[in-house]
Amino acid sequence: MAAHALDRDLQDLAASARAELVREIDASGAWAAEPVWREAFEAVPRHLFVPYYYIGVIGGYERRRCDESDPERREQWLRGAYEDAPLATRVHEGELLSSSSQPSLMAQMLAELEIQDGNAVLEIGTGTGYNAALLCHRLGDGLVTTVDLDPEITDTARRQLAAAGYHPTVVTGDGARGVPERAPFDRIIATCALRTVPDAWLAQCRPGARILAPLANGLIAVRVRDSGHADGRFLHTPAYFVPLRGGTRSEPEPQDLGGLPHRARGHELFRFLLALARHSLSAYEAYTLWERERHPERDRFGITISGDRSWAWLDDPAGPYVWPLP
């Protein structure tokens, strides 16, 4: 049974579940600034992009599939496809390799991208193809390019996009290098965690382009001035994504936190600062700063790229709290 071959009852369930998901995202305020995205989420059927997925269970993962012989399990798969939750879509030896992001976070990221009609968009990290489909619905196929390192991921995404009626340019390659043959771009959105913004992306952007990407455990939005200069602040929102594979592999955060108070070790804002400044500050130095600045929120931080230098900062790119990015 193909992912799109639903019987009438499941078709009705898919429609009602999708409508409920849209209402839930609407209530969250994710697209309040760009309500045009509501139409895309109403139109694009997420279940076509997750014919199977994994949910965490004790001892590992359990697979849910669209072709279950048991009608109740098939319904369970379909309902899960429309939950406002991330779905693991590729797992190897217990390691998560690819996922479909939480829809409300996707909606917020798309709204924060500030897309305008006619913008050419590059997506880094194709995943299931669902995010590319949303972009295609908004802009049309010809303005959307998506790239992923894994040919199995891109091949699957092409099929799933075609099944949903969308045909963006899907490229197999290292996302850190961008897609120069499709440049220039007006917007770049990454759906995988970075340790810095690659130089190649700036070089492939038009002046004034906007780049939105996960970094540390936040989302950075930078405005490109020219091929060597960009700057911007983090959004308030936390974000946890699978790392980009290829040229900008993420590095582990420092783990020597044993001497710090428990309230800091487990606090996501402290972990954010620790990840952002990990090449410059020890865990104790990061904790001291965190306390001195009264637990700063993510949107007080930003990054600046100037030529061959890039750095993160708190409050002011020329202020006292700056840290080089790798």
Question: Could you walk me through the main structural features you see in this protein, from its secondary elements to its overall organization?
Answer:
With 326 residues, this protein is an alpha/beta fold. Helix content is 31%, strand content 26%. The protein has helices spanning 8-28, 37-43, 71-81, 103-112, 130-139, 151-164, 199-203, 262-265, 268-276, 283-292; strands at 52-57, 60-65, 87-92, 95-100, 121-124, 144-148, 169-172, 185-190, 205-215, 218-226, 229-234, 301-306, 309-314, 322-324. Strands 7-6-5-8-9-10-11-12-13-14 form a 10-stranded mixed β-sheet. It has a two-stranded antiparallel ribbon with strand order 1-2. A two-stranded antiparallel ribbon has the order 3-4. α2 packs across α5 (130-139).
H/E order of the elements?
HHEEHEEHEHEHEEHEEEHHHEEE
**Number of helical runs?**
10
Taking the sheet with the most strands, its summary is: 10 strands, mixed
Mean pLDDT: 91
Structural class: alpha/beta
Strand line-up across the major sheet: 7-6-5-8-9-10-11-12-13-14
Question: Strand fraction band?
Answer: 25-35%
Low-confidence stretches: 247-254
Compute the separation of the termini in Å.
47 Å
The radius of gyration computed from the alpha-carbon positions, rounded to a whole number of angstroms, is 20 Å
Helix content: 25-40%
Q: Could you say which overall geometry the principal axes of the C-alpha atoms support?
A: globular
| Number of β-strand runs | 14
Can I get a quick summary?
This protein is an alpha/beta fold and 326 residues long. The chain is built from ten helices and 14 strands.
